[in-house]
Amino acid sequence: MVLRQGPSEVEVLLAERAVVAGDRWSGHLAFPGGLAAASDGGPLATAVRETREETGLDLSSAARPIGALSEIVTASHGSLAPLVIAPWVFALVQAAELSLSAELTRAHWVGLDGLAERRRGASRLGRALGWFLQGRGVPVAGTRLWGLTLAFLDELAGLE
Fold it and tell me: What three-state secondary structure class fits 95?
C-alpha cells in the first residue's frame, strides 16, 4: 500500500490488474504486489520488488515504510495450499512517476478520507459484505474496490 499527500487529503495508489484468462484477480483494483521470490528475504523486500516491477516506483528511494498491516492466510491461487498475504504500508517522500507493467492497465490515486467516509455509513456486516461480494464494494474510477484490498483499507482507516 503506497500513500502520498494529495492536494487535499492523503491518497492511496490503486492499480487495475490486466485481464488474464484463468486469473481470479483479473481486472480487479488492488495494491501493487505479488508472490514472494526465494531471494526476497521477507515481505518488506517482496513489496519493494513487486511495486518496482509493476509500477516502476522504487520504494527504496522514493518512500519510507510505515509498517505492516495484519497478515491474512487464504487459499493459494489454484490450489488449497495456504497463501499468506502480508501487506506493507509506505509513504512517498518524493514525487515519482509511474510506469505500469503489462500486469496492470491503469493506476489511480484515490483519497483515503473519501473512501473511509463512504465506508463509515455501512454497518460492520455491510462493510464485510464488501470484502466478499464485488457488487457490495466501493465504486472507484468506473470499477469496484472490494475483496482483500478493501479489507486492508478498512483496517488502515480503523473501520474493521
Answer: coil
